[in-house]
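tool_call: predict_structure(chain=1)
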Amino acid sequence: MAAEPQRRALPIGLREVGIVAIGRNEGARLRRCFDALPDDVRRVVYVDSASTDDSVEHARSRGFEVLELDMSLPFTAARARNAGLRRLRARWPELRYVQFIDGDCALAPGWLEAAVLELETNSKLAVVCGRRREVHRLASIYNRLCDMEWNTPVGDAKSCGGDALARFSALLEEGGYDEVFIAGEEPELCARLRARGWGIRRIDHEMTFHDAAMTRFGQWWRRTVRSGHAFAQVNAAHPAVYAREKRSCLIWGLLLPVAILVSASFTGGLALALLLAYPAQMARIFLGRHRSGDTAPDAALYAAFCVHAKFPEALGIAKYAWNRIRGRRSQLIEYK
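tool_result:
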């Protein structure tokens, strides 16, 4: 289990940072999110999406700005973040940076200091992100998979996740997130930022502690369907983004299974040969992860689920394509 974040005072030089937290029915996770904020951070906007618990009341009791979204309009995390960004800008126009954080996450000690220093040092950077960790990594294999997924390479990056520190001027220049995206809104925004010459960087510092609370296969499946949908939707807007991921999902999750079924009706030998491509792919991924530092059990888990993920990801791509053909807006895909 990762170390619990501790409260700390915010240095004067970081008082140009505002916080946008979003959530719905996060309960104790939201309290943990708020507890981890530096003691004197008061420029906080909490955006709530129809919580039925005491999230709104608790945020107000902390003295934070609270926005309750009109849920008669289509909800996306992008819409929530944009709403928080606008309120933050209206209340504190002098702010230069905004830290986005999901309500099921908590800031790591020292993160804001390290991230702001990175932005201050390089005026071409729009977004800085760090290492997101699962608090209850060993609670389930799905939490372990999330923790491995968050471990992205340090250095210049193509995109960030939901938790990140961003430069206000860059976000305003781009108009914030695109609210039609039900997932993948962060890489979509980052693609636009990079097209304008801005940089995205992942630094070697713990950023947030995340609580996926994912204990069932069905949750993992829905989350992975959402990933496939994000690949397709972002790729449709930016053909160079997620092209490889989308192609891989379609090959392994759709075309190869069809080829196996068709060949099985003619010759079992060819079908078996094609079927063996899956364990061969798992072995390749296992070796790559193990050589990169993963333990053998972690590498094996990641390899197995990476290959199996192609099926729900392909389904997510198909969902996006079907909705687009019918001219319908995709509905949110939630896993908890």
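agent: The chain has a mean pLDDT of 93. Proceeding to next step.
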